[in-house]
Design a protein that fits this description.
Layout lengths: L1 H29 L8 E8 L6 H8 L7 H12 L11 E9 L1
Antiparallel strand pairs: 1-2
Length: 100
């Protein structure tokens, strides 16, 4: 008799756990998917002799609707730069637009 009650209790607990799991999965499946991240296009830019990160940014920041300072930081981040130093003839990867 005690074994029967124990088995029945285990079955009830197992069924409850399964129901909770199914409900959790069902609820999470109904949620709105996260919006897709913005995708940024890039171009390779060859640095000219009088270029600075600031001058390059002044010409290109508006394409991403950014201010010049933020665009400088974006160039540095994209190119793994820790300083503002650039060399004529060098190449930079410039973010230039967003596509969906």
């Amino acid at each position: 008799m005690k074994k029967r009650i124990l088995c029945l209790s285990i079955i009830v607990v197992a069924v409850l756990l399964i129901m909770i799991g199914v409900r959790t999965i069902w609820t999470s499946a109904k949620q709105e998917p996260a919006p897709a991240p913005e995708r940024i296009c890039f171009e390779v830019y060859v640095v000219h002799s009088n270029d600075t990160l600031w001058s390059i940014s002044e010409k290109n920041a508006s394409r991403l609707k950014m201010n010049t300072r933020d665009y400088v930081n974006e160039i540095k981040k994209t190119n793994g730069m820790s300083s503002d130093r650039i060399i004529a003839g060098g190449k930079l990867i410039l973010p230039y637009g967003i596509y969906e």
